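Subject: complex prediction, re-run

Hi both,

The earlier run crashed halfway through, so I resubmitted it with identical inputs.
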Amino acid sequence: MNVATEPVAALRGVAKSYRLDDIAVPVLAGIDLLVRPGQFTVLLGPSGSGKTTLLNLIGCIDRADAGQVVVAGQDVAALSDDQLADFRARHIGFIFQNFNLLPVLTAYENIEYPMLLAGLPAKKRASRVGKLLQAVGLADRARNRPGQLSGGQRQRVAIARALALKPRLVIADEPTANLDSRTGAEILGLMRHMQRHYGMSFLFSSHDPAVIKAADDTIFLRDGAIRSIRRKPESNAAAPLTDQTEADSRTHEDGPESKRDDKPDAKALNREMAGA
Amino acid sequence: MIDLLLAVRNLLRNRRRSLATLLALVIGTTSVLFFGGYRKNIEYSMVTAYAREGGHLQVQHQDLFHYGAGDPTRYSITRYRELIESIRRDAVLAPLVTVATPTLQLGGIASNFKDGVSRTVLGFGSVATERNAMRRWNEFGLPMDAEPYALDGAAEDAALIGTGVARVLLLCQALGLQDCPPRVEASQAPPTTATSALDAADAADDILPDDIASLALGAAAPAASNANGSGTRVDLLANSAGGAPNVISLQVLRAERQGFKELDEVFLALQLPTAQRLVYGNQPPQATAVMVQLHHTADVERARKRLQALVREVAPAEPLAVLDFRELNPFFVQTVQMFDTIFGFIFVLIGSIVLFTVGNTMSTAVMERTVEIGTVRALGVRRAGIRRLFMLEGSLLGLVGAGAGVGLALAGAALVNSLGLSWLPPGSGDRLPLLLVVWGETTTLVGTALGLVLIASASAWWPAHRASRLGIVDALRHT
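This time it finished cleanly. Structure:
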């Protein structure tokens, strides 16, 4: 299959439950999902709907109890713990709600860290870190540690770190939740820009209307099941942010629970979420 | 490299905790090394004392050590002169040996007829100039000044006695001993020996009774010796080789304190030719042992092997054995073993403290950095990478702590050694320098430091293992 067209993640019949004392609490059940490549995809749903668990499964930091999870063409259930670690390092970038930078490393070193793990040569690392710092607008903050940076700056470093090895998929769990609205918008714009620039797939969970507005694909979760998926045409996915969010409202059905929605503006999505 | 960087920075991140852990390590290492230095000082002091007095090796009749105390002269060496000559000429032994000298040990009764007291003594006849050379031995450079052997250059009838012998023979005043305990008046004291019943006129006199004097060997006329006025005289009665009693009058030059009270109260040293005349008369002289002192204690085994071969060559008919100073002085071995055991106990104690201190520090670090562990695992670090990171932190703590401990121990030991302190070992009459022999003790230094580094690393293992087993999702959720 062509890498450019194959789904970056494909889930079939995925189920996951957590144990609370001796009781199994189902979190996800019967999830079928294709995450399109090169898209800005957002997971929506109320608290406890299973967004983070779904992100964890696709991010290969957790394993499904049942079903199949294929990421970047690899059935991850077949991988050992070490293989999974290597797989994550190569194919998946993470952006966390709390930034999760290593506090003892500078901004430069935090971005360089995944490259060191991957064994990139020093020259290549230096060049790539420099470009990423430039791209996230922190070239002058390279020697600062996270404690010396603002929330927005930390998240910029986290974005650069997530993109350090040019992964096929970037997982972001509520990346703007801990930022004020203005900074959140900046970060969102940056992520959108980087996603387009590097042509990779971003998969978010978010409650932020701005994120929802910016998304190419929107997946609604409730009670551990996908309730609907709204997709914008791929042709418009790479269109300028302002254009595509407002102009193109057509969606494609995908999966048994997908539904057609001709006007998926942010307000409508929020209403749906509130209803859920 | 990134692991090392992370380890160092994480340790510096919580400076106070790392410092407290390091302090425990530094103090622990220093304590172990101080005690190790003290132990070495005792060992070296004892080796020095034994090597000076009896040499490193002795060739003896094989039964002298176990059965010779009652009658040493029964277990003597006939060809001792040939043996010594062979040692001095031998290509292997000669470079190793500082002194090879004979000694004659004998049992007898020393009497102070003037005061009517006597006691059994152990006599040691030796070549004074060679004994003097032995006393200069100082392989370990200890500040233990050896007094020149008083019999060196003295008359043939000269003798040294232990302060205990001097005390019992009531010679304290005559020999100018200051620390003899006061005694009740002689007139009130009960007679102590049969000799005190001797005629009062004779007892008050400074010369031997006629019957005893007639046994004495010719050269040293008691009256003439007394005439010089130095020291005082004792008479030594001993069995000759033929079994007949023989007596000699000796001029006591001085009393010397011996290491142990038991020896101090029986010790009498005299010139070898005098001792030989007393025991063997006109027969060929013999010796009870050939003492061999080496330049270096480490050469004992090498020298012993060669000496054994030499003994078989020179005196094949004599049942001789070569004993080292450890075999001749079981107290030394027991003392060293006791200090080794205490050292081991202290090391285990300190090691346990290090184990729990570093373990606790690393456990706290794992707890505090759970989210970071989840983060780096998500970024692609394997479980082994997490384990390595925390193990590295524990090892670094151990390395820095032990290194600083070694430095502090060396500096502290240098300071203590410069103070010129001394101490009185149990059972000893002489004060010894109080030294901490740390510098140059590579085995103790490296062994202690390495041991504590390994303990520190081992104590980080369990927290590191626990960190590596954390689930990524659980770790990321940790608050």
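The longest strand of chain B covers residues 97-112.

- K.
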